[in-house]
Amino acid sequence: MCLFCEIIKGNIPSTLVYEDDMTYCFRDINPVAPTHVLVVPKKHFDNIRDIAAAADGAQYLSACSKAIDEVAKLEGLDSGFRVINNCGEDGGQTVMHLHFHVIGGVKLTEKMI
Ligand code: 5GP
Ligand code: ZN
Fold first, then answer.
1. Strands 23-27, 16-19: parallel, antiparallel or unpaired by DSSP?
2. Is 99 annotated in the active site?
């Protein structure tokens, strides 16, 4: 059972922010900023490396990029925001369905790179 596949199917409730044919974008249950939305492809990919290996990966990645922009517009993140993808155990990924964190609504200070 994949948690985000179940959320996409509606079997587990979530707070939807934006949806299209290829993506489902909902609020993180444990937000770290006023806006913390997870942008998730509707097709299951384990992580960003998995998407590179798939024939339709580029289409889904592009759809995620469009969804990130839509979320930024809907949330009014005009002065900027951060996109994070955690990949694999050492990257801190806890849900093994590819997702991008869109974090903003406040001046973000902690910076790793
Ligand atoms: P990761 O650590 O894999 O990059 O991010 C997983 C994210 O999913 C975490 O920020 C966590 O708070 C969020 N999350 C985990 N379970 C649920 C859930 O059931 N609903 C929602 N909306 N978010 C969840
Ligand atoms: Zn999944």
1. antiparallel
2. yes
Q: Which of 28, 40, 71 most suits a substitution to test ligand 1, by most atoms within 8 Å of the C-beta? A: 28
Angle at 35 between CA 12 and CA 74, to 5 degrees: 90
DSSP 3-32: HHHHHHHTSS---EEEE-SSEEEEE-SS-S
Q: What is the pLDDT of residues 6-33, one digit of tens each?
A: 999 999 999 999 999 999 999 999 999 9
Structure tokens at 52: 């590179």
- pTM (whole model) above 0.85: yes
Q: How many residues does the chain have?
A: 113
